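Q: Give me the 3D complex with MGD.
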Amino acid sequence: MQRGKKTICPLDCPDSCGMIASVADGRVKGLAGDKDHPHTNGFICRKMRRYPERLYGESRVLYPQLRAGKKGEGKFRRIGWDEALDIVADRLAETRSRFGGEAILPYSYAGNMGAVNRFAGYPLFHRLGASQLDQTICSAAAGAGWSHQCGDTPGCPPENAADAELIVAWGINIKVTNIHFWQYVAAARKKGGRLLVIDPYRNETAKAADMHLAVLPGGDPALALGVLKALIEGDLIDKTFIARETEGFDLLAESLKSQDWSDLIRESGMSRQDMAELATLLAGSTKTFIRIGIGLSRHSRGGMAVRSITSLAAALGLFAGGPGRGVLLSAGAFRGDKAKLTWPSLAPEKTRVVNMIHLGHALTALQPPVHALFVYNANPASVNPDGALVRQGLAREDLFTVVHEQVMTPTARYADLLLPATTFLENRDIYTAYGHFYLGVTDPVIEPVAEARGNFDLFQNLALKMGFTDRAFFQTCDERIADYLQDMQGLPQSCDIKEVMAGRLVQSVNSCSDGRVLVGRNHRFSFTSAAVGPEPQVPRLSRAGEFDDPDLLARFPLRLIVPPHADLLNSTFGERYSGRLGEVLVHPADAARWDVRDGEKVILKNHRGKVARIARLTTDTRQGVLVAEGIFWPVDEDDSGINDLTSQKLSDMGGGATFHETLVAIEQAP
Ligand SMILES: Nc1nc2c(c(=O)[nH]1)N[C@H]1C(S)=C(S)[C@@H](COP(=O)(O)OP(=O)(O)OC[C@H]3O[C@@H](n4cnc5c(=O)[nH]c(N)nc54)[C@H](O)[C@@H]3O)O[C@H]1N2
Ligand SMILES: Nc1nc2c(c(=O)[nH]1)N[C@H]1C(S)=C(S)[C@@H](COP(=O)(O)OP(=O)(O)OC[C@H]3O[C@@H](n4cnc5c(=O)[nH]c(N)nc54)[C@H](O)[C@@H]3O)O[C@H]1N2
Ligand code: SF4
Ligand SMILES: [Mo]
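A: Here is the predicted complex, encoded as structure tokens.
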């Protein structure tokens, strides 16, 4: 007999869907959307509907294994858990005593968004005095840009968009990366609302939209400031809101006065008329909802892009709330004390911090060197920029690498010791979301498959094995969840923690139904920068990084962006598409110039590396801009992937990544 059990999608996706797993004979037969989850609304994406194939698939890592071939070759021999734990404990202890704790580098990200399992390794690595990882690869620049102007204001609930007259999807591919937001777009359009997409290429969302502006990659600060300049010149700003709930507007207006139109036009790739029309469109709609994506922040001026767009939104009064109005980047609906998960008090003072984007550098050049690497919840061989350098590091004979994984990923192939990880269906955890305002706690749906162990169990066991007796290591999973929930901001006052622990979905109190997000929170929107630092006080045009480098432009004249693919979640599910190169969208004029043909294999290359893709000729992208969707797994013997082309350069704020700022050349494959 099949039974339906509730769970939550653990993937790094804003939607964090509620799901029903159907289980029979201790096996998961299928996954479907939970009808009782207001945001999920009974529907999940096609990636996750096929999850049971992954759970029981050929690629699944089932047992602890020791390397039995060359690094990266992917040959292993099975060992037992006891032996495996002894090996890790010995090697970590030895590394620490010979070279000091900082010679150990834990590397993890968001393969599992459950708060307990995501941060499960932190207490042990803190206790070991290991190098600390700055987790910047995704939203650090966007988050820093947002907090410069908005402080800790949460985003507006997505439901509010359903009443909008105008929805702006700015640097976000809703139909691919945030599909449940589409229900609000559809509802708004039913009532006559329109969708505008601002994105360098005609992505899936732009194809389904009413309007599309093909801004240049990295061009958003110029576009947003140009529109703001036009609004001020046309006296179209919301003066009441600006006076009542913001500060510093005069400084920004003054700075924009002296800003040349020619710079704004060149940098945005938009005409003055485009900007004037957008200003008119925005001023003419009282109910505007701006959905800001993280995509536009993966640039040298990514933080500035967010600062400029939120400033534009504030000048229009969109933070004042009201039906159909709002601004959403990241929900931020609940704020828990992360220290309750990570236990920073266990770390020695002043341990070195490694920005995860610099992993290639950290494994090949950092002094004193890293001698032990522990990877979990992540696939750095595929997702990290400067991929060839990352692999060079992973191939070092003197590096001891542990990888805790669910499937045989490109990183797992480089492990000295490979450990089998459970999936969310085999774990208990607590999930918030960055695209909606609900929180939930889940129970395991099935027993662990084969010898898989969850992150939390693994690290608790390892800490005890290493002889650590701190309280953190004796906590049960339930105790950690309860501790985290205890003073979580955003929970309703009446909320019964016991009920939440038993699986009741909770809606954040930050989700005021009228979308009003600033008032009443002791908060004013600041057009000037609240933080100290090298950033300019008011948003202004800053440098474009790699795209501004004349030497590189002469050799690699095309701008490449590398957004997500609908069938992958970052590199997760790559095992489903083994042998697939992935495509690169090329404008026909560029194709003619560089002599590449539709459907043929091409080489993209620059000073960091090269990778093969299949050319797709289309006017969906602008001339001079190439688009390579998806982090497919390596196909060729040289192991290359799309991130062999991207750089370790950091964004202007938050130490974020600059994935969409890559110069390349293109040629026919030999
Ligand atoms: N199917 C699927 N869903 C996903 C993911 C996935 O890999 N696959 N990844 C998940 C993760 S980890 C994240 S962080 C989110 C990210 O989701 P998003 O916030 O949507 O961010 P990106 O996907 O990086 O880029 C979104 C859009 O930004 C555009 N873009 C690039 N540069 C610029 C620019 O300079 N200006 C403007 N205006 N637009 C630009 C890209 O062309 C792309 O269409 O999605 C999550 N959801
Ligand atoms: N070219 C390009 N590169 C990008 C991006 C892009 O848009 N373009 N996006 C960037 C962004 S936004 C992000 S967030 C990063 C994402 O980088 P990662 O967080 O590394 O994302 P994934 O590729 O999904 O890999 C996660 C891995 O964790 C494993 N995993 C899942 N759950 C568990 C668990 O419970 N325990 C253990 N031990 N392992 C688990 C999965 O099997 C999977 O292999 O990639 C970045 N890289
Ligand atoms: S990947 Fe996103 S859309 Fe798909 S089930 Fe998970 S949370 Fe929902
Ligand atoms: Mo991300």
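A quick observation: The mean pLDDT is 96.
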